[in-house]
Each structure stands twice: as C-alpha cells, then as structure tokens.
Write a structure and sequence with these properties.
The structure holds 2 protein chains of 2 kinds.
Chain A: H1 3-15, H2 18-39, E1 45-48, E2 51-54, H3 55-71, H4 73-84, H5 87-92, H6 98-128, H7 138-163, H8 167-183, H9 196-202, H10 206-219, H11 224-249
Antiparallel strand pairs in A: 1-2
Helix pairs in contact in A: 1-6, 2-3, 2-6, 3-6, 3-7, 3-10, 4-6, 4-7, 6-7, 7-10, 7-11, 10-11
Chain B: E1 4-13, E2 16-26, E3 31-35, H1 42-49, E4 57-62, E5 65-66, H2 71-75, E6 78-81, H3 93-103, H4 108-121, H5 137-148, E7 155-159, H6 167-182, E8 186-191, H7 194-200, E9 203-208, E10 211-216, H8 218-225, E11 229-235, H9 242-246, E12 253-257, E13 261-266, H10 269-282, E14 287-293, H11 297-311
Parallel strand pairs in B: 3-8, 3-9, 6-7, 7-8
Antiparallel strand pairs in B: 1-2, 1-4, 4-5, 9-10, 11-13, 11-14, 12-13
Classes of the chains: A mainly alpha, B alpha/beta.
C-alpha cells in the first residue's frame, strides 16, 4: 500500500469520532430542517438564475458548501494534534516524507469533504429535489467544488495549525475565522438584497464561491460568473496549498 | 559492516554548537549507551542519527546507507522511540498498535499476531480498550515503546525509554530489550539512569557540551576511571575531635558529615583504610558500621563530566 494511502487511512481513523460525526451531520440537519423551515415564512422565494427556490432548498444547497468547509477543519486538527502529541516527529522518523504527510492531509480532507457533501446532499435531497437539474456537466462541477473547496479550507486550517501551539489559541482563531466565513457568505442567504458593503464582503469570502458553485451544480445554473468563481476558487486554493506546504515543510522538531 | 558510522558530525543552531565533531561507531547486535547530562546534545544526536534533522557538517552512515543522501531508505530500516511522548489521544491501546503496524505496511494477519504478543509482553492486556488520553504517563510510555516493535527493524533508537516507568516495568523493558538484542537487533540507547546503562549496554559513550568525552565498555570504564573508591564509616557515638585525628592522612579526601559519619575518597583506599582504623583504635573510637562502596558508572559519569567542565 502506498505511504500516502496508509497515512490517509490513519488520518481518517483518528478523525472519526462521535463528536465529529455529530458536528458533521446533526448540525447541518438542524440548519436545514429547523432554520430552513422556520425562516421559510419570512423568506418565501429566493431568485436563483431563471428559477425561484424555496428557502429550505436554497439553505440545504448552501449547507453542502458549509459542511465541506467544516469538515476540512479536520486537517488543522490532525496537524495540530500530531504536533502537540508528538506524532508528527514519530511519523517523520518512520517510512514517510514530509510530502507524504502533506499530500495525505490533502487527500484526507478531499475524502472527508466529498463524503460530507454527499451526506448532506443525500439528506437534503427531499428538500431541493423539485428544483434539481443534474447533468454530465453539473456533477463534475459539484465534485470540483467539493475537492477544491476542501483543499482551500484544509490548507487554511493547516496554516493556522502550524502557527499556533496552544489549544486555546488554535480553537479561538479557527472558530473565529470559520464563523466569519460561514455567516459572511451566501451559504445562508442570497447576496442579492443584502446591503452593499455586506454584499462586497460576501465576495471576499471563498466560501461564497464554493457555495455558488455547488448551488449552480445542483440547480443547473451555469453562468459565466460561476465559471469565474471556479477559476478564483482554484487560484485561492492553489496559493493557500503552496503556503501550507511550505509551512509544513519548515516545521521544526 | 557498522550499524552506525559517524564522522565529524556537527549541528549548529546559530552560534550554538549542539553537536560538535561527533565521531562514533556502533557494531551490530549490541546495545550502545549514550549518556550525558541535560543539554549535552543527546537528543540532538538522536535526531541527527534518525535523519529527523540534517547535520551542519560531517558524514553519517546508518546500516551502510548514506543517511544524509538517502534518509528515507534509512528510516525504513530503523525504529525510533523519541524522548517526548507520542500518541494518538482518541485511539485505544490496541488500535494504536494495530494502526502503527498498518502505517509500517505490516500485513493485517501479521499485525494482529504481533499486537496480541506485544499486549502480553508489555503488560497491556488489561488496558487494551482504554484510550491513550486516559492512560497514565507510564502506561502511555509502555504503549509507545511496544508500538515500535510492531514493525521489523535492524536498528532501534531509544531516547530515555524508561521515563515514567515503575521499577518493575523498567526491569521488564530492559529484559525485553536484552532478548531482542540476542535475536540480532542493535540498540542505540540514551538514558539518565546509569544503573540501566550498566545493566543493558555493551558499550557506553559519554557526551557533554556536544562532544564525546569517552567511549568504552562499562567494565573498561570502571577499570580506567574507577580507581578511586569510597569508604563510609559510621561511628557509634559523636566525636568532635575526629576531624583533627584524621587530618594528617595523605592521598585521600575525607568528608565529615555530622560527628558520626565519615566518607573517605581515595585511589589507595586499602592503605588509607588501615591508617584510619589504626587511628580510631588508638583513640578508642568505636565503629558501628563500615562499608566500601564499589565504583559504579554514576561516579565515573559525574567525575568525567566535572573534569570536562573544568577543562573547558
């Protein structure tokens, strides 16, 4: 078995615990089925391309991107835990290189991101199935969004984990950053109609691009703007991945 | 072929030389002890030898492989138990062993077999389902050392592996290692506990301030550096004149602890002891207890480190 696959196996084993699964599944379900239907009387229709979506359908599709972002926290947690509990050094003294370690983390978040997206798509499907328009183009688009988004947020979490040693610092920073991403984005509400400064802030946030791509993939609304968003997402993911890799390569023992 | 062949190995951090022109060689099938005070450069040396950090200068051959050019090749053949704890907090003891075996690409059936054996050998059966984060320091250390035996290796680096172990677990580990050496394993062993080194090691190097002061077998070290013996005398009653009675005896250093304890250090301990006994007898001073302390590695170690410090 290739060293990267062995490390991915190990990463997934240490990450899958009841707390993480609850975080990954129960929270998005609460958002979709509680917040979605509770806000539905206030936000009756959300215009999306040529369609008008129900708010629960809009929110459920947003939750896929939100969940991908949350799941990539795993990457930061793995690196942070490995450093804190001596496993980084232990792995590096074994039959692995730093490249193996970095790539295994990326693969782990890619796998977890895809599984999370599928899981939420599956449970959210009854909510948005009326408006779904899957095609040979839209499905690869969703997969692209899930993987690129995972790499982007996973790299960001990795960068934070390499810079911080205390658990308090790590938790505060990561939760603040991810909370900002979650709520200053189009995951929960559309950009249209939001006050102009907030609307601009939405588009400084990579989660908005990820959510827009996933949503466009689910509801078959591929526009020029979405393609630009895909390019931007890929660009930011590449830059953050390079930075994360460099920082991981320079980690001292 | 030497297991470890190091020539002029140095590691500097800015102006600080953590390891300075290290030269050492370790033959296969032996336990090589690496002793030194805190901050002497032991852990840095282990990190260099295990390819965790690159040297600033020098050459390093591990198991016949150039470790500077081919570190990954070396790491496939060695085992490492570092000084700091390493564990996955959420995994159980048995899962830790099993996953570690998987990481080393050990086939599933073989790793199950090894895991069961190691659980027994390291007295971990009762805690096999416990999560690492719930273990005591000693239990965690046992898991950490046991885990390393999940994979095959030719050379094992152990950096103070008995930290946190109780005397029983410590002795069990040392005996386990002795048995492994009989099967051909070579061990590079650092410790602060010199009785361990004396019990386990075939050869010992003492390092201080990044430099090796001496390398030899424990017995040879004792012969070479252990001429000085210590005699302890406990008097039956306090005698405040004892210091003046014994002050004229040459070739020895006498410490008077309270009025009843006398500690004598001398390279000619037999002659000195005869003189002391005669003086005590002449002055009707009764002895309650007398002992000659055999030279041990700890005394040699302390002496060498002190001498090295004063030389510098």
């Amino acid at each position: 078995m290739h060293p990267i696959i062995r490390l991915v196996n190990r990463n997934i084993t240490i990450s899958l615990n009841p707390g993480f699964l609850i975080w990954q599944v129960i929270f998005p379900l609460i958002y979709i089925f509680v917040a979605g239907f509770a806000y539905a009387p206030l936000i009756q229709q959300v215009p999306f391309g040529a369609k008008d979506l129900d708010y629960p359908a809009f929110l459920a599709s947003g939750m896929i991107g939100f969940n991908i972002m949350n799941s990539t926290l795993v990457s930061g947690i793995i690196i942070w835990n490995d450093r804190r509990h001596g496993m980084f050094e232990q792995i590096m003294s074994g039959p692995f290189t730093r490249s193996h370690y970095i790539l295994s983390n990326i693969c782990t978040i890619g796998v977890i991101g895809l599984v999370s997206a599928s899981l939420i798509a599956l449970v959210g499907y009854p909510v948005f199935f009326d408006s779904v328009e899957f095609s040979l183009i839209t499905i690869p688009m969703i997969v692209f969004g899930a993987i690129t988004g995972s790499v982007l947020f996973g790299s960001l979490a990795s960068i934070i984990s390499t810079r911080l040693r205390s658990s308090e610092g790590f938790n505060v920073i990561i939760n603040t950053v991810f909370l900002f991403f979650a709520f200053v984005s189009t995951a929960f509400y559309p950009a249209e109609g939001a006050p102009e400064p907030l609307r601009s802030a939405f588009y400084l946030n990579p989660l908005t691009y990820l959510v827009d791509i996933i949503r466009a993939g689910i509801f078959g609304n591929i526009t020029e703007f979405v393609i630009i968003e895909m390019v931007v997402l890929l660009g930011i993911a590449s830059i953050l991945f390079v930075i994360a890799s460099k920082l991981l390569t320079k980690l001292d023992f | 072929m030497l297991c470890i062949d190091v020539k002029n190995l140095s590691k500097s951090y800015g102006s600080i030389k953590a390891v300075n022109n290290l030269v050492l060689s370790v033959k296969p099938g032996r336990v090589f002890g690496f002793l030194g005070p805190n901050g002497a450069g032991k852990s840095t040396t282990i990190k260099l030898l295990t390819t965790l950090i690159p040297p600033s200068n020098g050459s390093l051959s591990i198991l016949g492989i150039d470790a500077i050019k081919n570190p990954l090749q070396v790491r496939h053949k060695i085992g490492v138990v570092l000084q700091q704890p390493s564990y996955e907090p959420t995994l159980s003891v048995e899962k830790s062993l099993e996953k570690y075996g998987m990481m080393w690409n050990i086939p599933r059936t073989e790793r199950k077999k090894r895991m069961e054996q190691l659980l027994k050998d390291f007295d971990l059966v009762e805690i096999r389902k416990k999560r690492n984060e719930d273990l005591s320091i000693g239990q965690r250390r046992r898991v950490q050392v046991a885990r390393e035996f999940m994979h095959d290796m030719e050379l094992l680096f152990l950096d103070e592996p008995t930290i946190g172990l109780d005397p029983n677990a410590r002795r069990n580990l040392l005996d386990y290692l002795k048995n492994k050496v009989k099967t051909g394993l070579t061990i590079f062993y650092t410790t602060h506990i010199l009785t361990e080194a004396e019990y386990l090691c075939d050869e010992i190097a003492i390092i201080d301030e990044g430099k090796i002061i001496t390398v030899d077998s424990p017995d040879s070290l004792k012969t070479k550096f252990g001429k000085e013996k210590t005699i302890k005398i406990h008097l039956l009653e306090k005698n405040f004149d004892i210091q003046s009675f014994l002050s004229g005896i040459p070739d020895c250093k006498i410490n008077f602890e309270s009025g009843t304890n006398i500690i004598i250090h001398s390279e000619q301990s037999e002659l000195v002891l005869l003189k002391v006994l005669k003086i005590l007898n002449d002055n009707n001073i009764e002895i309650e207890d007398l002992s000659a302390v055999p030279t041990n590695l700890e005394e040699i170690f302390l002496k060498m480190v002190r001498e090295n410090a004063s030389d510098n």
